[in-house]
Fold this sequence. Notes:
The protein has two helices and five strands; from the N terminus they run αβββββα. By secondary structure, it is α+β, with helices and mostly antiparallel strands.
Amino acid sequence: MNPDDPLLRILACPLDKGPLHLLPPAPGADREEGTGGRAAREESLYNPRLRRRYPIVDGIPQLLPSSGEQVPDEEHEELLTRISPAHRPDTPGTAP
């Protein structure tokens, strides 16, 4: 999935129905187990409002409420840096 994929415009969090943000794999995540472990090595969709991450398995977003995982505070801050600046929820005047 790429950041300009039209599918991202219609996908929504199953819990709050708000937009999700594509998280590419963390740089270097394939070489070491860092923050996020396995989830950092894979693409995922992130809801920063609820701090929930949903996996993308074989190119298919897993958007059942039970598929999401709660993200701890320190990982949330790291994930916000991985969201494209044009799509960050805390950047004024940006797309949701």
